[in-house]
Hints:
single chain, mainly alpha, 4 helices, 0% strand
Amino acid sequence: MGIFIDDIPANLQGLLEIVGEDKFDQIVRYYGGEKVYIPTYNTLIKPSRNRDIIKRYNGVNAGILGREYNITANQVKRIANI
């Protein structure tokens, strides 16, 4: 069956370009008809960022880490004390 790019909804054409036809076909067959939530990149990397902050925080470098991760020193302290 020949599916053309115009057969695919415009909001999914970017996904097709990223993953390719074979993977797109697998995604459609597996998730077709479902509502799928795709988190933002920042949401995905937050646990890794937090682990790094916890590992690197030494009690006095909250400001430095905050600038590095573009968060406040208070956020660094809150993350480090979890």
